[in-house]
Design brief:
mainly alpha, 84 residues
Length: 84
C-alpha cells in the first residue's frame, strides 16, 4: 500500500473507511494509533497487529437494539468462569 493511500478497507458501516479523508495513509494512521493509545491503552505493536475491521468493531458504538452493558455481577461471573 502506498504512503498516499487512505484507510479504505474498514468494515462497511463502521465509520472508519475514510479515516484520513483527503489525507495520507500516514496522517490517518497517526490519528487512529493515537486514538487506540488513549482509549484502549494500546502500544504501537498492538495497533499495527489489529486489522481495520477489528479496530472499527472495538471503537464503533454498539448498535444492537436493547443491548445493555454488563452488570458488575455478570462481569464477576464471567471472570470466575474464565479463571476458575
Amino acid at each position: 500500500m502506498s504512503q498516499s493511500a487512505s484507510f479504505g478497507n474498514a468494515a462497511p458501516g463502521s465509520g472508519f473507511g475514510n479515516a484520513a479523508p483527503g489525507g495520507t495513509f500516514g496522517s490517518g494512521a497517526r490519528r487512529l494509533s493515537g486514538l487506540a493509545a488513549r482509549l484502549l491503552g494500546w502500544r504501537p505493536h498492538e495497533f499495527w497487529a489489529a486489522t481495520p475491521a477489528e479496530l472499527a468493531a472495538i471503537l464503533a458504538p454498539d448498535t444492537a437494539p436493547g443491548a445493555a452493558p454488563l452488570t458488575r455481577e455478570e462481569m464477576n461471573r464471567l471472570m470466575e468462569r474464565d479463571h476458575g
